[in-house]
Amino acid sequence: MKKLFALLFFFSSFLILNAQDKKLNLIVGTYTKSCDSKGIYVYEFDSKTADFKFKNSSENIINPSYLSVSNDNKFVYSVSENDNKSSISAFGYNSKSGKLDFINHQNPNGLNPCYVINDDKNVITANYSSGNISVLGKNIDGSIGEAKQLVQHTGKSINTNRQEAAHAHMVYFSPDKKYVLANDLGTDKVYVYQYNPNSQTEVLKLKSSVNCTPGSGPRHLIFSNDGKYVYVLQELDGVISSFSYTDGVLEKRSETSIVSADFKEDFGAADIHISPDGKFLYATNRGKANDISAFKVLKNGKLDFIQRTSTLGKGPRNFAIDPTGNFLLVGHQYTNDIVIFKRDLKTGMLSEMGKKIDLCSPVCLVFTKI
Question: How many CB atoms lie within 10 A of CB 276?
Fold first, then answer.
């Protein structure tokens, strides 16, 4: 009898642990001025069924359009795009309850920060309107210190409406954390900065830069899983440029478009990600296109087109693939929802599920452990 109870206990414990393993948190940053939003939302997400439920939200933070979670899963850092009142905020994060406790905010000394990353030492932002990068110190309690470095980009490019000045659009750690890469839509450049996390004055030091096609507008980038290639998505021409990457130096290898040859209306490339297994790459396109393109990642770094499908909404900004690779979620800025797609793990193809999360103007989607 004791053996039977022990066996039943083991089996029930296994089922509980297995059920817990498939649950994740989905943290969503939003724009708050066009509709009713409290700012940052946390949902529980089932990575086997795509079922979800609301857990918690922040209180009245303005336009937390991009988020970054600390390595220990205890803090969330958010930009607040608000012109000359822009700020960077820190929150304590309870992954079990989804509760976000405001800690503090700081002035990045830049206008409209649109991307944020963090590590144990620093919080770094790309500030779109002022065309610069801010480095802010990070304290042991998770709070943000004052800005200790401001890196200013200068220049312009051929699109007079969008590229009249520098517009830093993304900052991104290299896989080994030795460098920070920065896309600048206004200057058509990708900058690579040597990263010195313990410095108090020169955390970022320019290592190299590479020119993109004039008028292309580099927006977001992603590394291949082996770190050998970088894929840069350009907002203004819808092209993905593939670069080889070695110790802070980029060299262009190939290009492919996310815009179909017969599409003649306005568009705006938005976000780019690679599947957890590294085999497939996806990129979203806004404007009148409102679609997502899928590519197979080849061993030589090139991309092989496999699918283009509607995102079933308007304004597909950010999207996220859950860590299991089973589902891809697209946030729509203008139709106020997050549409959930099923991923075929073998082919990379996306299919409709009829599931979506209704939410005001979602802009950034981040999965975390519970």
Answer: 16
Buried-state track 199-235, b at ≥16 Cβ within 10 A, e below 16: eeeebbeebebbebbeebbbbbbbbbeeeebbbbbbb
Q: How many CB atoms lie within 10 A of CB 354?
A: 7
Place of tokens 């989905």: 26
Q: Is the predicted pLDDT of residue 8 greater than 50, yes or no?
A: no
| Residue 270 and residue 316 in contact, taking contact as beta carbons nearer than 8 Å | yes
Which pTM does this prediction carry? 0.93
Q: Which residue has the tokens 């970054």?
A: 68
What does the alpha-carbon distance between residue 291 and residue 269 come to, in Å, rounded to a whole number?
10
Whats the size of the chain, residue-wise?
Answer: 370
Q: How many Cα atoms within 13 Å fall on the side-chain side of residue 72?
A: 9
Burial of 186 (0-12, 13-18, 19+ CB in 10 A): buried
Of 271, 272, 144, 147, residue with least CA distance to 204: 147
Q: Are the C-beta atoms of residues 255 and 240 closer than 8 Å to each other?
A: yes
CA distance 222 to 170: 11
Residues whose CB is less than 8 angstroms from the CB of residue 209 and which lie 6 or more positions away in sequence, other chains included: 189, 190, 191, 192
Cα angle value 147/89/81 (rounded, 5°): 90
DSSP bridge pairs for 180:
173, 193
Which amino acid is residue 62, in one-letter code? I
Instruction: Give residue-wise pLDDT tens across range 61-108.
Output: 999 999 999 999 999 999 999 999 999 999 999 999 999 999 999 999
